[in-house]
Amino acid sequence: MESVSPGPRDPMDPMIVLITGASAGIGEATARRMAAEPSTELVLVARRGDRLARLAEELPCPVTYVAVDLTAEDAPAQVLAHVQEHHGRLDLLVNNAGAAWRGTFAETGFENVQRHIELNFYAVVRLTEALLPLLHASAPSAIVNIASTAGRVARAGSGAYSASKFALAGWSDALYAEEREHGVHVGLVLPGFVETEGFPAEELRAKAATRWMVSDPAKVAEAIVEAGVGRKPERYVPRPYGLAAGARAVAPWLLRMAGRSSSASVFTTKTGGDDSDE
Predict the structure, then answer these.
(1) What is the chain's percent helix, strand, coil content, to nearest 5?
(2) Predicted confidence (pLDDT) per residue in 5-25, tens digit
(3) How does pLDDT run across 221-243, given as a tens digit for each residue?
(4) 4 part of a folded domain
(5) Which is it for strands 141-146 and 184-191: parallel, antiparallel or unpaired?
(6) pTM of the model as a whole
(7) Is 241 a known active-site residue?
(8) Which residue of the set 165, 176, 236, 241 is catalytic?
(9) Residue in 161, 176, 236, 241 annotated catalytic
């Protein structure tokens, strides 16, 4: 299919926003938040078409959706063809889809690293590559990649997840510098613990001492709007989680010491990776 060259968006035209992992959690919250923005059309992407259909009916703006597994070889082409056919342009790409499967490297090995990288990093890169010409043509436009605080600070039991998010964060930093001259802003959102279907954080929510550490999807959605519409380069959610990333850079010994403490295991929470599009 031939690429389109719509040019800069007329103020009277709708803002076309594509959100992956939109069937639940952060993706769903982002769809609801973006639907409240003036003159917006949404493209929702996730594996579970039934959930996308229900969400589309509930939103107060024009919505189309693509039910696809983003790790499939033809997924980027499917999404691109859909956007070109139904919308003709793209103003904001939110790369949110992802998952986590906990376990030490000795327990889960290369296979666990591979599946994290394929979904949390390669799928993002492949989709962005397919849609980047459309974003160039629609500039000024934006990409928001949803990484994680675990993409700056790793912990035991979630090394494979951190590896994928470290890769995403590093690639996003480079893409930010590369795409500025093309009018494509690249924002990075790094949530800490967020209560979602894929990351229930039951261990932290069960104790008053750690319950405060768990945020909710609506707050992450607000950060995504700031990074995309507001064109901020980086946002931690909650903001104090950025201190952990800073400590990793200036005092790595401090985090290593904390990771050896008897209470550190509570921060390696169980996940629902196999059932989530987040």
Answers:
(1) 50, 15, 35
(2) 566 666 668 999 999 999 999
(3) 999 999 999 999 999 997 666 66
(4) no
(5) parallel
(6) 0.85
(7) no
(8) 165
(9) 161
